[in-house]
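In the laboratory, one determines a bound structure by crystallizing the protein with its ligand and collecting diffraction data. In a computational setting the workflow is compressed into a single prediction: the sequence and the ligand go in, and a structural description comes out. We illustrate the idea with uridine-5'-diphosphate-glucuronic acid.
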Amino acid sequence: MKVTVFGSGYVGLVTGTCLAEVGNEVLCVDIDEQKIAMLKRGKVPIYEPGLDALVQKNIEGKRLNFTTDVTQGVAHGLFQFIAVGTPPDEDGSADLQYVLAVARNIGEHMKDYRIVVNKSTVPVGTADKVRETIRKTLEKQGASLEFDVVSNPEFLKEGAAVEDFMKPDRVIIGTDNPRTTELLRVLYAPFNRNHDRLVAMDIRSAELTKYAANAMLATKISFMNEMANLAEKLGANIEQVRLGIGADPRIGYHFIYPGCGYGGSCFPKDVKALERIAREVDYNAELLNAVETVNNRQKQSLFHKIRHHFEGQLSERTIALWGLAFKPNTDDMREAPSRTLMEALWEAGARIQAYDPVARDEARRIYGNRQELVLCETPEAALQGADALAVVTEWNVFRSLDFEMVKTSLKAPVVFDGRNLYDPALMASQGIIHYSIGRPVMT
Ligand code: UGA
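The predicted complex, in structure-token form:
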């Protein structure tokens, strides 16, 4: 089938590439000429495991093409995917200007029936706006053409996006036209094996499903972080509590890891946007509000522990930081807890020596060459001469700690473990002062 994907960012590129991989003819459209030129040469501008190889393979197979030409894009696909950004406005609501600009383009250039599939995360009611925009644009030109608008939210996780697209746990199709559902069923058939993963519903429910899923996951994390803080005060161990509650299948073990807060481009943005959506319909979403507040507080937790340990004396201190990305297997630092920690430490006069397997360039892009941030090539280099180590991202390379290296490289063996990677008893037995999340400090 012929598919056009507007927006060659994270979602659009993964969607386009995976649809090409199963044999569709995909044309990706983006307004960024530099990005399109890069992609045409098979260079992927984002870090996502497995994506480079897949992009190159499908370009060579002539199933995946890139263009900045909107007219060509609208002419190409029966399916017109919208996967452009919806950055938060100042008030937290999703900015729809890019989505609606694509809708206008589709209305201006379409010559026959099109299925417009929205993949961007958008407020409930956006499909209606997209439909209205296309309808009005067609009307202006005196054209009366048929089209359908579908909400098909994506549930990809950064770092596992290709796998998530190829083996989805569900495909949500929101439409008011059963014929469109059937066409999308055919498009998604290669990903819909073993048992039926396609869940068809009305458009507004599909739009809300996306926010509800992310808000639920964010709630799980904030809930666990709240329990972790409570455990610290009560002298309990949150990791044991986690195992104790996860055993109940109604709760489950997934996504209940306490830590130094959630980050990324999705949870923080989507929780805020849903709060805002609720406000617009006169509903005070108190739980969502609390989820966000708890997370903001949690992102400060390592800083408070560090400040407390050094009795408020942080100027002239150097902190080694392992992990800059908001989670492993990505170079994304949007809303990353590392940023909150670094900025608080700088404010207090400390310096940072940071190591991350892939996000160093991203850190350089965000912070430039500031003196208080040294970006190191190895985890060892980050430790050299530092007063303490803070671990913020659970990259696998950090999991097995070389105790001797920590003891010989740091001025004093102090570790702030923001992801509960290390066993408190083992750390104590090695003579390392170990602060973690929701667990007692052992001596
Ligand atoms: C999230 C969702 O998991 C995807 O399903 C969704 O499609 C995506 O947002 C989106 O809306 O595009 P992502 O932001 O890539 O995906 O990252 P996650 O793996 O969900 O992690 C988010 C944050 O939660 C990370 O900072 C992670 O460290 C934190 N986290 C996760 C915890 O603190 N504890 C946990 O138990 C799990």
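Residues 116 and 379 are 47 Å apart (CA to CA). Keep in mind that any predicted model is a hypothesis to be tested, not a measurement.
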